[in-house]
Amino acid sequence: MSANESRLAFQQIPVEPLSAVGEIAVDFANFIAAGFEPARLRHCSGEACSLVFYDSSRNGARRWCSMEVCGNRHKVKSHRARKTDTE
Predict the structure, then answer these.
(1) For residue 72, which of 53, 52, 44, 41 has the smallest C-alpha distance?
(2) Structural domain boundaries of the chain?
(3) Residue 63: what pLDDT?
(4) Residue 55 CB coordination number (10 Å)
C-alpha cells in the first residue's frame, strides 16, 4: 500500500437490540468504505416528502426517494394539470 492509499475497516459491534441510529451508522460506514460520494446525497423532490436518499443512478439525475410513491404522485399531478389545461 502506498502513502497515498488508505484502507478503512469497520467492525459491527453487536448491541441488543440494535437501535435505528446504530443501523444508520453502520450503513453510513459501509457507504464510506465502498467509495461513498457525498455529492450524490439528495433531498427528495416530492412536495410533502422530507426524505434524503443516495442517488446511485448512472447519470446522477434521480429526483425522488421512490418512483413508486413520490415520482408517481408528481407524474399524476402533472398529467392532471395538462388534462385540465386542454379542456
Answers:
(1) 44
(2) 1-36, 39-86
(3) 93
(4) 15
